[in-house]
Write a structure and sequence with these properties.
Blueprint (H helix, E strand, L loop, with lengths): L3 H7 L11 E5 L3 E7 L19 H17 L8 E13 L8 E11 L3 E10 L2 E14 L6
Antiparallel strand pairs: 1-2, 2-4, 3-6, 4-5, 5-6
Length: 147
């Protein structure tokens, strides 16, 4: 298990854009992370007033961050790297995610090269699939002085 401090050590994301709270399980090819969805997140103010729904693009971003954790934790000089999205395929949203939900996100490696990877993300609430997508990413050097 990796707590929030460990996540902050691996990912460059920070509030309000860090969208994973804890790593529950991890090995070389798979990660399971927890995202506690809370009403005080800034996107709920406008999406949608009176009917708060987590935007689908943020669910996909949470999957990408989980994938980043999986991939970057294995890179010795990870503080000098960034992972960028290069593609999203087969994305489906199956149910709304609302405040109070616990989003369990499982990401598995489909294909990996030195600087590129393809992963599969599935986000569930109470065992029910909320969203799924195939994600592609590229690892790049972080600009000097930005670590």
């Amino acid at each position: 298990m990796i707590d929030i401090q460990g996540i902050l050590d691996i990912l460059p994301h920070r509030y309000p854009f860090l969208l994973v709270d804890r790593v529950l399980e991890v090995d070389d090819e798979r990660i399971l992370v927890l995202k506690n969805v809370t009403y005080n997140e800034p996107h709920f103010e406008g999406h949608f007033p009176g009917v708060p729904v987590m935007p689908g693009v943020l669910i996909v971003e949470a999957m990408a961050q989980a994938g980043g954790l999986l991939l970057l934790r294995q890179v010795p000089d990870r503080h000098n790297k960034l992972i960028y999205f290069t593609g999203i395929d087969n994305c489906k949203f199956r149910r709304p995610v609302t405040p109070g939900d616990q989003l369990l996100i499982e990401v598995t490696v489909r294909r990996r090269r030195e600087r590129f990877a393809q992963v599969r993300g599935v986000a569930r609430v109470d065992g029910e699939v909320a969203a799924e997508a195939d994600l592609a990413c590229a690892m790049v050097d972080r600009p000097k002085g930005e670590a």
